[in-house]
């Protein structure tokens, strides 16, 4: 991919690529270095993108994807690595997904809920993490059940347990650990959504957005994404199909 000085100035106006990273996605960010930089598939994707541009990378961490999305257009980050959702796409030009993560529900012991289709019914209360990609899906699609939102993944689980809610929405890899903590709980078969983890930039950056889209497709085609998943030993991530 050719990189012009104009493209470099558009995507990295400060001379480095400022990459917004969502620290709450434990599949894509596995920890921190001694200097505080995030470690994982998402930071490595940002590093690889910066290398394609011929610039360095500086990570801009956010505690949640909603806060990262809120910073779009504020000259805080140049690219953001979060789930691509219609609400966020109003401000952010996203690539196609580079990885996908299944989202489903967990229910408690003795629950009459047997399938995902049973969840969206009057009287059902769902615990969710506010403004997570799967929570934005619930906001668009849940018509009859009530969604109770908590500020973090951990607090969503605590609310589900402490207030005796009917279902807990979440990424399947996280629910696989949560279900072990609650005797008799079970995870519903299938998924209600597949969270599309992508790379976005400001909507005004048309050339930059095209460059990022091409980079993501090449990262999937070349096996880079698969190698990063293997490098960080992540269970529950799958390489997204080519766009």
What does the secondary structure layout of this molecule look like, with pairings?
Blueprint: H1 5-11, E1 16-22, E2 31-32, E3 38-39, H2 41-53, E4 56-62, H3 65-70, E5 79-83, H4 86-89, E6 92-94, E7 99-107, E8 125-129, H5 133-141, E9 146-150, H6 153-162, E10 167-171, H7 172-178, E11 186-187, E12 193-202, H8 206-221, H9 224-231, E13 238-239
| CATH architecture label of the largest domain | 3-Layer(aba) Sandwich
Strand content: 25-35%
Q: Stretches where pLDDT falls below 50 for ≥5 residues?
A: none
Mean pLDDT, nearest integer? Answer: 96
Largest sheet, in brief, is: 11 strands, mixed
Q: How many beta-strand segments?
A: 13
State Rg.
19 Å
Q: Which term fits the overall shape?
A: elongated
Tell me the span between the first and last alpha carbons.
Answer: 18 Å
Structure overview:
The protein is an alpha/beta fold. The protein has two domains: 5-99 and 195-239, Periplasmic binding protein-like II (D-Maltodextrin-Binding Protein, domain 2, 3-Layer(aba) Sandwich); 100-193, Periplasmic binding protein-like II (D-Maltodextrin-Binding Protein, domain 2, 3-Layer(aba) Sandwich), CATH 3.40.190. Helix content is 33%, strand content 26%. It has helices at residues 5-11, 41-53, 65-70, 86-89, 133-141, 153-162, 172-178, 206-221, 224-231; strands at 16-22, 31-32, 38-39, 56-62, 79-83, 92-94, 99-107, 125-129, 146-150, 167-171, 186-187, 193-202, 238-239. Strands 1, 4, 5, 6, 7, 8, 9, 10, 11, 12 and 13 form an eleven-stranded mixed β-sheet that branches. Strand 2 and strand 3 form a beta hairpin. The longest helix has 16 residues, at 206-221.
């Amino acid at each position: 991919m050719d990189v012009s000085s104009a493209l470099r100035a558009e995507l990295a106006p400060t001379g480095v690529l400022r990459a917004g990273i969502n620290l709450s996605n434990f599949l894509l960010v596995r920890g921190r270095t001694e200097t505080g930089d995030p470690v994982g598939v998402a930071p490595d994707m940002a590093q690889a993108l910066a290398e394609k541009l011929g610039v360095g990378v500086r990570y801009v961490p956010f505690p949640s994807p909603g806060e990262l999305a809120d910073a779009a257009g504020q000259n805080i980050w140049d690219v953001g690595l979060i789930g691509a959702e219609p609400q966020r796409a109003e401000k952010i030009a996203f690539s196609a997904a580079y990885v996908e993560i299944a989202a489903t529900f967990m229910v408690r012991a003795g629950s009459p809920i047997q399938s995902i289709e049973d969840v969206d019914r009057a009287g059902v209360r769902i615990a969710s993490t506010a403004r997570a990609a799967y929570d934005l899906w619930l906001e668009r699609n849940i018509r009859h059940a009530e969604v109770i939102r908590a500020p973090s993944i951990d607090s969503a689980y605590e609310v589900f347990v402490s207030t005796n809610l009917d279902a807990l929405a979440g990424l399947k890899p996280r629910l696989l650990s949560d279900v072990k903590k609650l005797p008799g709980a079970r995870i519903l078969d299938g998924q209600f959504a597949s969270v599309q983890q992508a790379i976005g930039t400001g909507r005004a950056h048309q050339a930059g957005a095209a460059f990022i889209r091409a980079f993501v497709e090449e990262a999937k085609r070349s096996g880079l994404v698969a190698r990063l998943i293997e490098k960080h030993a992540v269970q529950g991530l799958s390489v997204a199909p080519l766009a």
